[in-house]
Inverse folding.
């Protein structure tokens, strides 16, 4: 059993919970620290307004964004987490529908494909990966994203790797 992902999906359409589960399984195969069955994370498919409010409150950025991640474990603690024991909250992810839909349209890709990428991105942030630390960290995180999406049959979202 993999990460227990609790999904609240008020976005239009169906299949968001199933997509999230597939993405989480693929991410855990590429980032084994996510494969601990004790881990619990929440994923909120919500509005631009709600993500804007969260971004303003928690990141001091007064605008909506595509995805926000709120880790609850330090990476060292996650890596040291034994397989046996009670559930452990990994963190929360929120996705903004309008921003995600606009970005997908601009990229000329399906909303589901872009959303899958952002879920992977958010899960990796919950696992302690951070593309803002350095170019080396960014490259490593991008490679994890690309490999995870490839398992799902999705194209490289960065388009600059061979």
């Amino acid at each position: 059993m993999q990460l227990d992902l609790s999904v609240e999906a008020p976005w239009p359409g169906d299949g968001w919970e199933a997509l999230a589960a597939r993405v989480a399984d693929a991410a855990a195969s590429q980032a084994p620290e996510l494969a601990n069955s004790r881990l619990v994370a929440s994923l909120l498919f919500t509005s631009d307004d709600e993500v804007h409010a969260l971004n303003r409150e928690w990141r001091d950025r007064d605008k909506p964004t595509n995805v926000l991640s709120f880790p609850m474990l330090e990476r060292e603690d996650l890596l040291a987490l034994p397989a046996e024991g009670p559930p452990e909250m990994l963190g929360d992810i929120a996705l903004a529908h309008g921003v995600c839909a606009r970005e997908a349209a601009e990229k000329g890709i399906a909303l589901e494909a872009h959303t899958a990428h952002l879920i992977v991105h958010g899960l990796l942030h919950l696992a302690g990966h951070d593309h803002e630390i350095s170019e080396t960290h960014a490259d490593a995180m991008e490679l994890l994203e690309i490999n995870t999406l490839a398992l799902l049959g999705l194209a490289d979202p960065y388009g600059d790797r061979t």
